[in-house]
Design goal:
It contains five helices and six strands, in the order H-H-E-H-H-E-E-E-H-E-E. The protein is of the alpha+beta class.
Length: 147
């Protein structure tokens, strides 16, 4: 009796595993392969971004009570995208994205300064990593909303 129950259980388990495998031409498998190929360094896209340069620590401290110590260690900024242009076309899907700056010489002023400013910057977006490589600042202005 125990061997019969075990055989039935094993049969159900194997059938479940076989049916769960996808056919090589299944659309979901193609999507997964396409997404994986986007994660390569070649997936960097040149863009012009407009957004708010905000301190991640200050923001988390204010919203969630995080133990950020910006006064001691300095601010560490990221960019909250309000508009993105890629190849001359607006990319509405990027609105609201938070992009962290790639540590480069060109990015240092954005990482450490421009607190609460609205900035317009050109560079490369590494979408899978949500990282922005600064190549050129085109405009920066102080936020109209005090922090």
């Amino acid at each position: 009796m125990k061997s019969r129950v075990l055989a039935v259980f094993l049969g159900i388990f194997i059938a479940t595993q076989v049916s769960a495998q996808e056919h090589p031409e299944h659309p979901k498998k193609q999507t997964t392969q396409a997404t994986t190929s986007k994660a390569t360094p070649a997936s960097a896209v040149e863009a012009t971004l407009v957004g708010e340069n905000f301190c991640v620590g200050c923001s988390l401290k204010k919203a969630s009570g995080a133990a950020a110590q910006c006064e001691t260690y300095g601010h560490r900024h990221a960019l909250k995208v309000s508009a993105a242009t890629v190849e001359g076309k607006d990319v509405a899907e990027m609105k609201g994205w938070v992009l962290h700056y790639l540590d480069t010489d060109d990015a240092q002023s954005y990482i450490k300064e421009h607190h609460g400013e609205t900035v317009t910057i050109k560079g490369k977006i590494y979408a899978e990593a949500r990282v922005f490589e600064v190549s050129k600042q085109t405009e920066a202005k102080k936020s109209e909303h005090p922090k």
